[in-house]
Amino acid sequence: MSFSGFKEVIEEGDTVILYIGVSQIYALEVKPKVINKNGQGVDNVFQTKYGSVKVMDLVGKKYGSRVNLSKGWGQVLYPTPELWTITLPHRTQILYTPDISMVLTQLEIGPGSIVCEAGTGSGSLSHAILRAIGATGKLHTFDFHKERVKVASEEFIRHGFGDRVIVLHRDVCDEGFGVEGVADAVFLDLPKPWDALPHAVSAIKTSGGRICSFSPCIEQVARTCEVLQSLGLQELLTLECLAREFQVKSISLPRVINGQKAPTHQNTHVSQEEKQPDLKKKKVEECVEGAGSDTNTKSDEHEQIAAGNKGQQGNGDFRFTTGITQLKMPGHTGFLTFASVPPGLARNKLSCVA
Ligand SMILES: C[S@@+](CC[C@H](N)C(=O)[O-])C[C@H]1O[C@@H](n2cnc3c(N)ncnc32)[C@H](O)[C@@H]1O
């Protein structure tokens, strides 16, 4: 099977995504046996909060269809790099979709691109690159951790990317990328990216290309930028991607007539849920987790929003549906530093600059 294509029906050997709710999404391998904690081969039965599923029973089901669990239900989805990023087994820290989408855009990665990446880590970014470069592109990905290289290679093959990726066990800071003048883009997620930068520039095509380095700390960014400049790279840009989610909610505001606030009992409507935070939390959880159970909470919630969509309230306030940002936002992951290797950059003195 392939993450980059699509097919209708689940077969043995596929990786499928079991979606129960926003915080219950799992990647399952469709195979008869799995190894348990004691190292024994046992039937592949996956346990969830809503009961178990015999994974081989998924064979023959359509992607996107509903599957019954012993105490509820879920949906089986076709795998994508985005779903893989939120379900993959973590062997390292990983890049998430907001950073990944910025990397793909800024590095101008598309069908046919040749990309170098270090380190491979858990393969989160690699999957997105592999889909973006298509069948005509090539990813050279490197890690100095032997076991991670082995596991990532097996995963790429299982996910249908075997023919467009070369996974090598290598210390790129000491040994470089082993390719010269071939890459359109190089991506680094390393503790000391500055040591790999001269090699990264050598890997880029003589006609030019793009480099990106991901670092959690601003001190790493400062040192990376100094080396990028000393190597003669241009268009340096450091970004931090913070995704700001909006939720659609009903709120109330006072009516204003001829610049005057209409008489009102209170300016903003405080719902029963807002007075009782626990109740509100429970309702939201039920709403987002609704797929797993057969309660009607989710549809009730939608009906309530639709009913209270727009209109005047008894207290004179105007109630309407709008987008509200979350009070808590997912925090800092790291900084992305981009730079361009200009066409014809002299490469003979690169190794001594860093
Ligand atoms: C944070 S992880 C990369 C995660 C990856 N970007 C992802 O999205 O899954 C960093 C990886 O770099 C590898 N690494 C660190 N220094 C390296 C070096 N000098 N050469 C090759 N790999 C290196 C580590 O073994 C680790 O697996």
UniProtKB/TrEMBL annotation:
Listed under GO cellular component are: nucleus; tRNA (m1A) methyltransferase complex
Q: What EC designation does it have?
A: 2.1.1.220
UniProt lists compositionally biased (Polar residues) regions at: 261-270
* UniProt signal peptide: none
Q: Where in the cell is it found?
A: Nucleus
Q: Where is the composition biased (Basic and acidic residues)?
A: 271-286
| Family of this protein | Belongs to the class I-like SAM-binding methyltransferase superfamily. TRM61 family.
Q: Function, please?
A: Catalytic subunit of tRNA (adenine-N(1)-)-methyltransferase, which catalyzes the formation of N(1)-methyladenine at position 58 (m1A58) in initiator methionyl-tRNA.
Please report the name of this protein according to its UniProt entry.
tRNA (adenine(58)-N(1))-methyltransferase catalytic subunit TRMT61A
Organism source for this protein?
Answer: Scylla olivacea (Orange mud crab)
